[in-house]
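Following up on my earlier thread - several people asked me to post the actual chain instead of describing it. Fair enough. Here it is, all 96 residues.
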Amino acid sequence: MNGGEAGVSAVSAYLDQLLSLEQKVPGGDVQIPFKWKDAFDRGSIFGGRISLTVPSLAYEKAATMFNLAASYSMYVESITGANAARCSIKVSSLSY
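Reply from S.P.:
Thanks for posting it. Predicted structure:
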């Protein structure tokens, strides 16, 4: 498994855990502070200096889905070789 597949797998597993938590505990009752850094702030190479802490399961799910889409994009973009175009389209189609 390469880094792209590992990243997709890790983010997907985390999203599965969030969805499982949501089924067991109503979203409004979850008071876990989720901390995010602004990825689009140009403060540093690893993300921005601006951070946001929100105790919202819905926000965490939305941010995780965004990261899952970004992970899939990075994975498909990393496919190389003789059949790279065909493999990229196949992975993209299967992941949709």
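The CA atoms of residues 34 and 60 lie 7 Å apart. That should answer part of your original question.
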